[in-house]
Amino acid sequence: MNLSFIKEYLFIHKLIFRKYSILRISQIMIVKKLNIYGSILDVGSKASISNVSNFIKTKEKINYADKYSENQNDLKIDLENYDQNFEKKFKNVLLFNVLEHIYNFKNCLKLCNSLLETNGILYGSTPFFFRIHGSPNDYFRYTEQSLIRLLREEGFREIKVSNLNGGIFICFFGSISLITNKIPFLNNILLIICQLLDLFISLFSKNSKNNYPLGYFFEGKK
What we know:
Elements: H1 3-17, H2 22-31, E1 40-43, E2 62-65, E3 90-96, H3 105-114, E4 116-127, H4 144-153, E5 157-163, H5 168-180, H6 186-201, H7 208-211, E6 215-221
Parallel strand pairs: 1-2, 1-3, 3-4
Antiparallel strand pairs: 4-6, 5-6
Helix pairs in contact: 5-6
C-alpha cells in the first residue's frame, strides 16, 4: 500500500466526516486529477464552498453562469433556452450536477457547446443512483450510452464517459449516509463495511460496479 493511496483514502474519510455525499466525493476525486488550462466557465453554478470545481488544480479564475445568481460578475444564463448569444468563449466549460435538473437538456448541451472555443472541452458529471433532489426540479437520470449519444448529437467529439464509483453496497451507502451522517464517525465505519461487501460481491459479479454506478463523469471536445 503506497503513501499516495493512504493520503487519498484519508482525504475521502475527512470529507465523509464533513458530511459530503459519496457521490460528490467521487466527483471531487476525479476533478482533482484533471489538468485544466485556459479560461473556465462553471455552468449552472455560482461561487460556493460546496462547488466541485473548487477542487480543480488550476491557476485560472473560475467564472460562473447561473440564472439565479445575484453576482453582477456572473453570466446570467437560461439553460433551457438555446436562443441566447454570448460574445465571450471559454476554453473549458464545466457542467457538474446540472444536467439532471434541465428538462430541455439538449438545449443545455447545445448552449455549452456554443460557449466553448474551437477545440474547447466540456467536463461534466451527473448522478445515477441518487435521491431526488430539486434545484428547483429533478427530471432525469442518464446512462453511459445515453450520455455518449447525446454529446455526439450535440456536436462533441473525443467523448469519454466513466463511472463515478459504484457497486450494490456503495449505492446503499449513498442513500443511508444522508440519514446516518447525524452521528459522528458512523458513516466512516459504514463506508468501510460497504466497500468490503462490494469487494466480496465482485468475486461473483464482475460487472457489479458498472451495473450499479453512483453517477458518471463525462467530457467531450468541441
